[in-house]
Model the fold of this input.
Amino acid sequence: SVGPSAAQAACHPIQTTPVFAGLVPTAHEVLGFDLGDQEVTVAESDAYLGGIDGASDRVTSGTAGLSVEGRPLRYAIVGAPGNVTTDGLAAVRAAIDQLRDPATSADDAEALAASTPAILLVQANVHGGEESGTESSLQLLYELADRTDCVATTILDNAIVLILPV
Done:
């Protein structure tokens, strides 16, 4: 049987020790408490998302829409810096559109699939009474925005992660 390559074994998704650049503020630095110590309000989630976005060229954020109560629903997109710019996101969208087009040749589709980042969606708090999704998605955002180890870089090299914490 064929096992994982040496590089894959050295970059275990769970056992690799996280390495942080220290460029992105922690939740404690922005909110005054660590994620998981207490429930994060929508305002606190928005503040931390903005703090991460402001500190990292791997992140862009915006408003996806409004809640039924008229409050903005904020999102963050995290990925390789070139992929999360306006031009980078437009290029990814164009590549995905081409992949979805049945007229695209198999060879072109294979090349596009190999070179286009996957789009991953984390919709963290679909039920208002389940707050832990917000905290865990903010932790994910922080780690992808600041980590420099092989686990984070592998994700960022191969995907764009769209996070809706609330």
User: Anything to note?
Assistant: Residues 143 and 156 are 11 Å apart (CA to CA). The helical segments are 6-10, 27-31, 42-55, 86-100, 106-115, 132-146, 150-158. The mean pLDDT is 92.
